[in-house]
DNA sequence: TATTGTTATACTCTATAACTATA
DNA sequence: TATAGTTATAGAGTATAACAATA
């Protein structure tokens, strides 16, 4: 019955997570990609160049452009020319952006909390270790 | 360093899986959604109605329409009116479709195998149990 | 009225290729 | 020449709303 393969389970659970996350982000006016970028900038705690941010998110720079466009339009980040290298663009969190990053972080925490509610802390740690191991083989 | 949250890890690993899967499906002329539908039909081992198949895949019927369109165009399935209820459409695997479902299953097995290669069989079972538990709370 | 499926539309996530400006 | 970013384009995956046919 519950004979779902690992690959299928991973897909289903991941989609479920996104679903809960999206719902919590709607009131913030963000989509998951924007929230993820905001989080990364908040975690870095300093402006990142487009390539650095793309790398952090593991997407290609081209895919980052519309994300940063949207964030800039909402006044959450601004682009600045990198004084050290004028080819580079620094993505700088505004004060509003920093506050929003915090709210996005909270939304994700809640979505994760709700999804993994059935697991004990031990089980979550186990799951985290297993996924980390899988992820690590590609770094 | 590896301080990624569970939610983030899940997202990254799931994306990685899709990536490997997509690559293996390209030579078959399938995308993951089509392959998933084909698998479900193969597993059911009997024609399914659109709603049943959508339900199995956990997507809305509208999202299934273009998937079945593509499969039909490739001669892998055909639509038949359900004699028992003329509102319903039965999605029937052709012989070619049945063979392709098998190849898709193999492609997914390989993608999973490659992704989870770093895990022992015990660890895979653990991971499977944990994800099943998370998934089960929504059924 | 309720159900099944499709038409119409739209948004998100992601990618490759070609181009511009700068180094 | 090489790097950083954008313009252009494309394809998956998914959703909601409105509608036609059938029950």
From TrEMBL, chains A, B:
<dbReference type="Pfam" id="PF01047">
    <property type="entry name" value="MarR"/>
</dbReference>
<feature type="domain" description="HTH marR-type">
    <location>
        <begin position="3"/>
        <end position="136"/>
    </location>
</feature>
<protein>
    <submittedName>
        <fullName>MarR family winged helix-turn-helix transcriptional regulator</fullName>
    </submittedName>
</protein>
<dbReference type="InterPro" id="IPR036390">
    <property type="entry name" value="WH_DNA-bd_sf"/>
</dbReference>
<dbReference type="InterPro" id="IPR039422">
    <property type="entry name" value="MarR/SlyA-like"/>
</dbReference>
<dbReference type="InterPro" id="IPR000835">
    <property type="entry name" value="HTH_MarR-typ"/>
</dbReference>
<dbReference type="InterPro" id="IPR036388">
    <property type="entry name" value="WH-like_DNA-bd_sf"/>
</dbReference>
């Amino acid at each position: 019955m519950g004979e779902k393969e690992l690959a299928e389970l991973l897909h289903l659970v991941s989609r479920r997570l996104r679903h809960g996350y999206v719902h919590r982000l709607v009131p913030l006016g963000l989509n998951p990609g924007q929230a993820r970028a905001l989080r990364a900038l908040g975690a870095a705690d300093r402006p990142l160049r487009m390539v650095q941010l793309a790398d952090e998110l593991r997407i290609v720079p081209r895919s980052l452009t519309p994300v940063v466009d949207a964030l800039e339009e909402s006044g959450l980040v601004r682009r600045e020319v990198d004084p050290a290298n004028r080819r580079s663009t620094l993505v700088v969190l505004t004060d509003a952006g920093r506050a929003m990053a915090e709210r996005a972080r909270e939304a994700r925490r809640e979505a994760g909390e709700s999804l993994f509610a059935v697991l004990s802390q031990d089980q979550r740690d186990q799951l985290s270790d297993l996924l980390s191991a899988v992820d690590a083989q590609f770094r």
